[in-house]
Amino acid sequence: MDSTTPEFHEYVRSLRTNDVAAWISFHEDDQYWHTSTFARARCGLYYLRTEYDGDQPGVGTLIRDARIHGRFSPRPVRIGQYFDGSMMHGAVDLLRHWCADRQLDVFALWGRAYPDAGPKTLPDLDEVTEQSRWEGIVYPPCWTTALSRELGVALCEVGYDRLGILFSKLIRRTP
Length: 175
Known about the structure:
Blueprint: E1 2-5, E2 10-16, E3 20-27, E4 32-41, E5 44-52, H1 59-69, E6 71-74, H2 88-102, H3 106-113, H4 122-135, H5 145-157, H6 161-173
Antiparallel strand pairs: 1-2, 2-3, 3-4, 4-5, 5-6
Helix pairs in contact: 2-4, 2-5, 3-6, 5-6
């Protein structure tokens, strides 16, 4: 998917193949291609955020650089493992799954934690779910209190501290 956002003066391209998922944006302010790349590997993914000058980097370059310079992260994502920052799609998708199980509005919860940011529409959240499934995810068959607490910790581990704290308060009140 390609899009142009004139208000930010950047060109955005996303791609997903069997071997790579990447987001590429050209920023006019610094004249660099900013990338966020996941490259498949045995038992996990390599994740790399970096910039390129000159021409837009090709798929081969993105994969090679992610495998050489990226951080390895095991997959599939599941509750009970350490969550690093590259697992944010999985953590948010697990939150979505938890909310669906409890028949709660994930957008309302997100909006309370981050009133001015985050997925605001179903297509935004669908993209997160699509990416988490591409990366590999295992949903718990049943959300116990202990697993719910671990999800709150996972949200904090991936950088969603306010959401993790709000979620932890919520699970104390939710059966």
